[in-house]
Design goal:
Oligomer: single chain
Shape: elongated
CATH class of the largest domain: Alpha Beta
Largest sheet: 6 strands, antiparallel, barrel
Number of domains: 2
CATH architecture of the largest domain: 3-Layer(bba) Sandwich
CATH superfamily of the largest domain: FAD/NAD(P)-binding domain
Distance between the termini: 14 Å
Length: 407
C-alpha cells in the first residue's frame, strides 16, 4: 500500500502538529515554510515561557462568527490530550491558576523537542518557499517561483497577519480565496486600544487592577478584569486585550465604542464613600489630592479629580454630597472613547479569516476543494489570553493531520 503524500503549508504550531499527526498515521509528510526557520511565533508565546494550553476550556474562551465551531474542533483533541502529547515527546509541564507551561518555562525547549519529533518521523521542512498557486488535477500541484510540488493532500496552516515579524504575512488568505473560500476581514485582536482624551500622556506607565466594561452603541457587550495598563495613547494590559476583538470590529463598522473603567473593582460605591468620609473625619483639613493617594497611583489622582470637576486642593470637609457622588462615578465608571487600535505588528492574533462554515467541522476539510484541510490562525477563530490560541493550534492541527492521513 502506497503512503499518502501530504504537504503541510506553514511550520507554525498548527502546521507542525498537523505534520506530526499525519506522519504518525504513516503518511509521507513534507512541510513548506516561507521563512528561513520554523516556530518563530511559538518562541514569543507566554513572554518566552510558552503558555501551552489552559486547563479550563469553555466556549466563551473562543471567538468566531460560527460560534459552535471552535469547541467542535477542541473536543476532538482537548487540553488533556495536548498534555499527553507533550509528555510523549519529553515535555514535563506545570500549571499556574490553570495556565500550563513547560516545566523549564522555556519556549525554546518546546521548539527543540518538536523538531526532534519531526526528525524522528522523517518529516522534511523546506524553507524560503513562496507559494503562488494550488491546482488540483489527479493530484495536487503546489506552484512556487521555481518548483512545483505534488501530493495527495494539502494542509494549509499559514497563520494570520498578526505579528508579521514572526512570519505571519497573511499570504494564506490569498491562497484560500484562490481556491474559493470567503475571507472574513482579518483585524488585529489581543491588542492595545487607542482612545481620545488629552490626559493620557500624563497617565503613561500607570498600572492598576481594574474592571473594563465595553459598550457598543450604549449596550454592554463584554467585561473583563485584570491589570490595566495606561499608555500615552489609550489602554493596554490583559483585560484590554480580552475585549479588543469586539471593540475593533465595532470601530471598523463606525459604531460608538466606549470602555468604562472601574478603578476599584473589589469595592462597591458605599464602601468607597465610607472610606472617603472616614478620612475626612480623621483629618478635616486633609486635601482631596491627599485623601486619594491612599487609593490610586499619584498620576491618576489629578485626572480623576479634574474629570469630576474637583480641585485637588479643596478640603474633603468642604465637599457636598453631589460632588462626592460625581467623584465616585468617575472612580467606578470612568468613560474612555475608543477611536482606533494598534496595528497587526502589536497584535498577538487576528480576528477574522477563512469562514469556518466552508469546512467540515469534524475533519477541517474544505468544502470548496476536497482534499485540502485548513488549520490554525488562518481560520476565523481566535482565543482570549491564557493559552487558548495555542490550544486552538494544537487541536485544529491534530484534526487536520488526522483527517488528511486517514481519508
Amino acid at each position: 500500500m502506497n503512503k499518502q503524500e501530504i504537504i503541510v503549508i506553514g511550520a507554525g504550531a498548527a502546521g507542525v502538529m498537523a505534520a506530526i499527526t499525519a506522519a504518525r498515521n504513516h503518511a509521507k509528510v513534507t512541510i513548506l515554510e516561507h521563512t528561513q526557520r520554523f516556530g518563530k511565533k511559538l518562541l514569543a508565546t507566554g513572554n518566552g515561557r510558552c503558555n501551552l494550553t489552559n486547563l479550563s476550556q469553555l466556549p466563551e474562551h473562543y471567538r468566531s462568527d460560527n460560534h459552535k465551531f471552535p469547541m467542535q474542533v477542541i473536543s476532538q483533541f482537548n487540553e488533556k490530550q495536548t498534555l499527553q502529547f507533550f509528555e510523549e515527546i519529553g515535555i514535563y509541564t506545570k500549571q499556574k491558576l490553570g495556565y500550563v507551561y513547560p516545566y523549564s518555562e522555556q519556549a525554546s525547549a518546546v521548539l527543540d523537542l518538536l523538531k526532534l519529533e519531526l526528525d524522528r518521523l522523517h518529516i522534511n521542512i523546506i524553507y524560503s518557499v513562496s507559494i503562488k498557486e494550488i491546482k488540483k488535477k489527479q493530484r495536487f500541484q503546489i506552484l512556487t517561483d521555481t518548483v512545483t510540488y505534488t501530493c495527495d493532500k494539502v494542509i494549509m496552516a499559514m497563520g494570520s497577519k498578526a505579528a508579521p515579524k514572526t512570519g505571519s504575512d497573511g499570504s494564506g488568505y490569498a491562497l484560500a480565496k484562490q481556491i474559493g473560500h470567503r475571507i472574513i476581514t482579518p483585524l488585529p485582536a489581543l491588542v492595545q486600544l487607542r482612545c481620545s482624551g488629552d490626559y493620557f500622556k500624563s497617565l503613561a506607565g500607570v498600572r492598576c487592577e481594574a474592571r473594563l466594561r465595553l459598550m457598543i452603541d450604549k449596550k454592554v457587550v463584554v467585561e473583563d478584569k485584570g491589570e490595566l495598563q495606561l499608555t500615552d495613547y489609550g489602554i493596554s494590559g490583559i483585560p484590554t486585550f480580552q475585549i479588543s476583538r469586539y471593540a475593533i470590529r465595532a470601530v471598523e463598522k463606525g459604531k460608538a465604542v466606549s470602555v468604562y473603567i472601574d478603578f476599584i473593582p473589589d469595592k462597591n460605591e458605599k464602601e468607597i464613600i465610607s472610606f472617603l468620609y472616614s478620612q475626612i473625619r480623621h483629618d478635616p483639613k486633609k486635601k482631596m489630592e491627599d485623601i486619594l493617594i491612599g487609593l490610586f497611583n499619584k498620576k491618576l489622582v489629578p485626572v480623576l479629580l479634574n474629570q469630576a470637576n474637583l480641585s485637588g486642593k479643596s478640603l474633603g470637609k468642604e465637599l457636598k454630597e453631589v460632588q462626592i457622588n460625581r467623584l465616585i462615578q468617575k472612580i467606578k465608571a470612568f468613560e474612555v472613547k475608543v477611536t482606533s487600535y494598534n496595528s497587526f505588528e502589536q497584535a498577538q492574533v487576528c480576528s477574522g479569516g477563512v469562514d469556518t462554515r466552508e469546512l467540515f467541522p469534524d475533519t477541517l476539510e474544505s468544502l470548496k476543494m476536497p482534499g485540502i484541510y485548513l488549520a490554525g490562525e488562518l481560520l476565523d477563530v481566535d482565543g482570549i489570553c491564557g493559552g487558548y490560541n495555542l490550544q486552538w493550534a494544537w487541536s485544529s492541527g491534530y484534526v487536520a493531520g488526522k483527517s488528511a492521513s486517514m481519508s
